[in-house]
C-alpha cells in the first residue's frame, strides 16, 4: 500500500480535479449488491483470522488505506485494525479517531424523532402538511413513519443537477441546510406514500425539519439533548463546514494506479446535514448503536414499531440479507441477526450494528468510499468481511442475534 507523502500542490488540487467523479457516487441512490458467503467463519476469540481478513481487505488492489473494527460483547471490547489512519504519518487507526459517519447519521435522526414520539411531541403518523406547511403542498400527505421507513416517495434532493453544479464549482460551498429540499420543491412525489421502498436523502432532511418545527429547537441541540448526553457521546457532532477535528481517520479516493488522494476535507457537510453530515469516532458509534438498538432512548412500544421490517436495503447494502425498519436495518447473516445502519461518503464507508438486546455490537469503518456504483467487486468483498466479523461477534451466543 502506498505510504509516501504526496507533493503539497498535488495533494491540494487533486480533490478538485476528481470532484466530478466523487460527486457521481457520494450522494446517489445505490442498488444493493448480492450477498456473498465468506469462505471462512472466524469464531469467537479467533483474533488472528479477523486480523488476516481485515489486512486482506486493505492490501487488495484498490482497497482502503485503513480499516478499524470495534467488537463489544458485554464489557469485553476487541479492536481489530489494519493499514493506516494517515498515509503521510503511517500511524494506525484508533477508536478515538474522528471520521465522517455518512448515512449512519440517519440512525441519529431516527433516534431524535422516536425520542420525540416517546415524549408525545411528535406522532409517527404526523403529516408534512401539518408540521411543515411551508413545504410543497403536493408532499403534504407524507408521514413521519413513511420518511423513517423510506416509503415517502419524496424526490431525492441529492439528485438535483443544480446542487451538483454548485458542488462542482465549489466543493466547500456553504448551503443553508434547512433549505436543501428547495432543490426538488417543484417535483412531484415519486410514488404514492407508503406504496413502496425507495431510499431518499430527502427523508431525513424532512425528519430533522419536522423535529425542529415540533420543538422550536435547532436539530443540533436536539441531538445533544436527546442522543449525545443520554448515551455519553463526547466526540460526536454535526458540523456544517469541511474541517475535521483532530485526530481523525483520513479518508481517501482510491483509484489505482494513482496513489490514494486524501479527500477527508474535500467536501463540506452543509449539503448533507441530517442525512449524512455527522462526525463521530468508533468509540462513540459503539455507544450509540448499543443504546439505539436496545431502546435505551425510548420505550419498547416504539422499538416494536421500529421493527416493522419491509423489503429494502441500506445504502450501501450491509452484510447478509437486508430488510428495512424505521431508521434501522435488519442484517440477517449466516450466523444470526444484527440491527444497524450503513453509510458512505467520499473517503469513508461505515457499518454500525448490534444484537437486538444491545449487548453485542460491531462498528466497522474503512477509509475509502465503497459502494455498488463505484466499486461493486470491493463492495462484495467488504460485505463478505463484515459478515465474518458479525459471526465472530455472535460466536457461541447466536441466540442473542435472532431478533
What does this structure look like?
The protein is an alpha+beta fold and 403 residues long. The protein has helices spanning 8-17, 19-26, 47-59, 105-118, 128-131, 144-149, 161-169, 201-215, 219-231, 282-294, 300-306, 376-394, and strands spanning 66-73, 76-83, 99-100, 252-253, 261-262, 279-280, 310-311, 321-324, 329-333, 336-345, 348-354, 360-366. A hairpin with a 4-residue loop joins strand 8 and strand 9 (329-333). Helix 3 (47-59) runs antiparallel to helix 12 and helix 4 packs across helix 9. The radius of gyration is 20 Å and the shape is globular.
H/E element sequence: HHHEEEHHHHHHEEEHHEEEEEEH
Fraction in helix: 25-40%
Q: What percent strand?
A: 5-15%
Give me the secondary-structure category: alpha+beta
Number of extended strands: 12
Q: Mean of residue pLDDT?
A: 89
Radius of gyration: 20 Å
Instruction: Name the poorly predicted regions.
Output: 1-20, 24-45, 397-403
Order of neighbouring strands in the sheet with most strands? 2-1-12-11-10-9-8-7
- How does the overall form come out from the CA principal axes? globular
The main pleated sheet reads as:
8 strands, antiparallel
Q: Figure out the total of helices.
A: 12
N-to-C terminal Cα separation, in Å? 40 Å
Amino acid at each position: 500500500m502506498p505510504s509516501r507523502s504526496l507533493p503539497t500542490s498535488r495533494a491540494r488540487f487533486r480533490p478538485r480535479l476528481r470532484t466530478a467523479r466523487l460527486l457521481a457516487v457520494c450522494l446517489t441512490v445505490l442498488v444493493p449488491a448480492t450477498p456473498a458467503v465468506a469462505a471462512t467463519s472466524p469464531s469467537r476469540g479467533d483474533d488472528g483470522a479477523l486480523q488476516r481478513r481485515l489486512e486482506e481487505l486493505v492490501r487488495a488492489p484498490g482497497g482502503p488505506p485503513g480499516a478499524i473494527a470495534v467488537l463489544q460483547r458485554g464489557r469485553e471490547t476487541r479492536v481489530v485494525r489494519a493499514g493506516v489512519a494517515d498515509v503521510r504519518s503511517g500511524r494506525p487507526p484508533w477508536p478515538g479517531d474522528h471520521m465522517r459517519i455518512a448515512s449512519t447519521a440517519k440512525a441519529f435522526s431516527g433516534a431524535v424523532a422516536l425520542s420525540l414520539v416517546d415524549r408525545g411531541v411528535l406522532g409517527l403518523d404526523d403529516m408534512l402538511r401539518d408540521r411543515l406547511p411551508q413545504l410543497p403542498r403536493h408532499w403534504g400527505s407524507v408521514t413521519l413513519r413513511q420518511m423513517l421507513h423510506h416509503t415517502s416517495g419524496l424526490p431525492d434532493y441529492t439528485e438535483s443537477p443544480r446542487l451538483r453544479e454548485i458542488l462542482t464549482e465549489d466543493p466547500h460551498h456553504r448551503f443553508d441546510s434547512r433549505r436543501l429540499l428547495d432543490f426538488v420543491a417543484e417535483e412531484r412525489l415519486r410514488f404514492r406514500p407508503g406504496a413502496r421502498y425507495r431510499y431518499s436523502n430527502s427523508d431525513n432532511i424532512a425528519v430533522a425539519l419536522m423535529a425542529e418545527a415540533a420543538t422550536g429547537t435547532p436539530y443540533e441541540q436536539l441531538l445533544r439533548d436527546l442522543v449525545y448526553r443520554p448515551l455519553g457521546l463526547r466526540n460526536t457532532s454535526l458540523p456544517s463546514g469541511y474541517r475535521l477535528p483532530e485526530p481523525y481517520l483520513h479518508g481517501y479516493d482510491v483509484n489505482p494506479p494513482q496513489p490514494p488522494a486524501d479527500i477527508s476535507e474535500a467536501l463540506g457537510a452543509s449539503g448533507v446535514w441530517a442525512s449524512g453530515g455527522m462526525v463521530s469516532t468508533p468509540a462513540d458509534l459503539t455507544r450509540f448503536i448499543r443504546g439505539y438498538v436496545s431502546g435505551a432512548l425510548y420505550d419498547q412500544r416504539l422499538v416494536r414499531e421500529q421493527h416493522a421490517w419491509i423489503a429494502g436495503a441500506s445504502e450501501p447494502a450491509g452484510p447478509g440479507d437486508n430488510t428495512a425498519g424505521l431508521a434501522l436495518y435488519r442484517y440477517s447473516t449466516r450466523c444470526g441477526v444484527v440491527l444497524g445502519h450503513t453509510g458512505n461518503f467520499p473517503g469513508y464507508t461505515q457499518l454500525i450494528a448490534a444484537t437486538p438486546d444491545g449487548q453485542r455490537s460491531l462498528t466497522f469503518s474503512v477509509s475509502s468510499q465503497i459502494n455498488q456504483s463505484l466499486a461493486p467487486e470491493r463492495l462484495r468483498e467488504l460485505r463478505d468481511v463484515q459478515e465474518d466479523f458479525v459471526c465472530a461477534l455472535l460466536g457461541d451466543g447466536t441466540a442473542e442475534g435472532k431478533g
